Amino acid sequence: MKIAIASGKGGTGKTTLSTNLIALFSETETVVLSDLDVEEPNSGLFIKGELVKEEIKYKMIPEWKEDTCTLCGECQKNCNFHAVIQLGPQILVFPELCHSCYACSELCPTSSLPMISQRMGTLNHYENGNISFIESRLDIGQEQAVPLIAQTNDYIDETFDKNIVKIFDAPPGTSCPVIEATKDVDFVILITEPTPFGLHDLKLAVETMKKLRKDFGVVINRYGIGNNDVIDYCENDNIPILAKIPNSRKVAELYSMGKLIYTELPEVKQELQKIRNYILNLKINN
Amino acid sequence: MKIAFTAKGTEWESEMDPRFGRTEFILVYDDEKDEFTSFDNREIENEAHGAGPKTSQKLFEMGPEVLITGNGPGGNAATVLEKAGIEIYIGAGQMSVKEAYEAYKNKNLKGV
């Protein structure tokens, strides 16, 4: 059972919800939390554990072999990302643009672009009681989150039972990393705040999830600020609102100290329990 | 000598395009023949990635010795242009092509 926590807008509470929800789940069952915001993972500020596994992750990039190349130009014609460029008598490869699709390499008539591995980041697996926490982190200078997110998802599929509840703290926005982080999950929780900005980006996130044909629901964070437009929008579009987490200065204080929130604020715990029950119902119906 | 401009049109009076990879046109002026050749680069709008290298490659095919542009190429494009041995001058993004050419001739543009 895979649940992604995503948002259009950044800073609406993805990590707060992911870490608190996983802790609440762990009171009664074993669960998996995965931070897929590999460009800036931060769930680990709130969920600690014993490091049980560390893997270095690689992606595959073509390397030009000058001695066998006939400069036929097939490679640059086949590259959709302009990562392979022919410049007179030489072929230039741009690793940051390469999507590791192998087209240039496989279609090269003289096999002059063999794929070689290039380090892109790390995956860390921590254990803490009922929580398995998987955090992947891109190396500084790496631009592509998608391959590392994909490999993190593979690791989770290989390592954990299918039926365990897994929560994925997704990257913000609506671009490729979000697609990769949400495409294989059973349900997406879109967390937003009840402000014009929140609504604007929520609409983008909703459109994205509709395109992906995902089941999704909305959690309103900082409920009590702003206006009613998010609620009106969800009601008009028949989008379920799973919970409304009340706005409180105390939440910010606890977050700033790296602490979980629901254990100290019963009004937050009550809302998280609604989300937990919703997920458990989905699981039964699956 | 051939001098390339990133521009929003194909004439002396056209505005310069401050962008390199996503420039609307590449305009090449041959000062020996006193003539322009141009390339309509507007399809680049549809490319999500790699605009810099793609435009650089087109520029390379047009064979100029000098490029005059606005903001300057990004990292990937700069790598291609360096390999191609094209001299780059920046800071002409708010000028017309004619003004940019004169500024270059008067050595008022910054080299990269």
Protein architecture, described:
- The complex is a heterodimer of chains A (286) and B (112).
- Chain A has helices at 14-26, 74-78, 103-107, 146-159, 176-182, 196-211, 229-236, 249-256, 266-285, and strands at residues 2-6, 31-35, 50-62, 84-87, 90-93, 115-128, 131-138, 165-169, 187-192, 216-223, 241-246.
- Chain A has 286 residues and is an alpha/beta fold.
- The termini of chain A are close together.
- The mean pLDDT of chain A is 96.
- Chain B has a six-stranded mixed β-sheet, with helices on both faces.
- In chain B, helix 1 runs parallel beside helix 2 (75-84).
- The longest helix of chain B has 12 residues, at 51-62.
- The chains are: A alpha/beta (286), B alpha/beta (112).
- Helix/strand-derived category of chain A reads alpha/beta
- Quote the distance from N terminus to C terminus of chain B: 19 Å
Shape of chain A, please?
elongated
Helix content of chain B: 25-40%
Strand content of chain A: 25-35%
Q: What is the CATH domain class of the largest domain in chain A?
A: Alpha Beta
The CATH architecture designation of the largest domain in chain A is: 3-Layer(aba) Sandwich
Structural class of chain B: alpha/beta
Q: Which H/E pattern describes the elements of chain B?
A: EEEHEHEHE
Order of helices and strands of chain A: EHEEHEEHEEHEHEHEHEHH
Radius of gyration of chain B: 12 Å
Largest interface: A-B, 13 and 14 residues
Oligomer: heterodimer
Distance between the termini of chain A: 9 Å
Radius of gyration of chain A: 22 Å
Task: List how many beta strands of chain B DSSP finds.
Answer: 6
Strand percentage of chain B? 15-25%
CATH fold label of the largest domain in chain A: Rossmann fold
Parts with pLDDT < 50 across at least 5 consecutive residues of chain A: none
Number of domains of chain A: 2
What is this entry, summarized?
With 286 residues, chain A is of the alpha/beta class.
